[in-house]
Sequence to fold (213 residues):
Amino acid sequence: MGGSQTSAITVDTGASLGFTVGSTTTSTSTVNFDTGSTVTITGTPSLPSYTLMTALSFTGIVPVLAAPVAGYELQVDGFTTLKLVQAGYSSWAAVNGAGVNLDDDHDADGVTNGVEYFLGGPAGNTTGFTPLPGVINTLGTLSITWPKGAGYGGAYTTDFVVETSATLSGPWTAETLGGGNIVDTANPGGSVKYTFPGPLSGKKFARLKVTGP
Fold:
C-alpha cells in the first residue's frame, strides 16, 4: 500500500496487507484485520521504529507478520497507528521458551534471561550454555566488554547498567554513564565496556544487569 486511503479496508483471512519500509500510508477510515490475515514488509529496516500506517482505527485481530523480519515486530499505538518496531524481550522469550522475568535463568546455565537477551538480541536463540565475556588486560588496564546482540536497542541506565562491588555478595553499585569508566556504543555492532579504575587496592567485581526494553 501507499499514499492516502479514504475507504474502509478489510484484510480477509489468507490475505496480506503490504507495506514498504520508510513509506507511510494514511487512511481516514477503519482498517480491519480478519483472523488469518497478515502484514507483508518490503525493504530492510534499520531504525528503531517505522510508522507503516495511520488510520481512523484498527480493528479485528492484532496484526501479525506474514514472514519474520529479524529483530522487528508489529505494534499498534492507540488503535490508530501501525508501526514496525525493534523487537524487545518478549520476542527473545518466545524464541527461547522463557518466562516474563528477566532475572530468571530459564536454561539454568548461570546467566539471567536479561543478559542472554542482551547478548543474543530479540531474535537470538541463546538456550543452552551462554558464554560470558572475560576481563581483558591491556598493558595493565583491566576492562570487560559485553557485545549487544543484533537488534538490541536498550538505553544505558533505563534498560541496562553495569554494576560493581568489592564482594560477590554485594552491595552492588551502578556505574554512571559519563563517569569515565563506561563506554556505551549503539547497534549495529554495539557494546557496553567497563574499565576498572586503577590501580586497584583490592578485589572488584563487575556484572551486567538488564531490565529491558
User: Anything to note?
Assistant: The mean pLDDT is 92. Residues 4-86 form one domain.
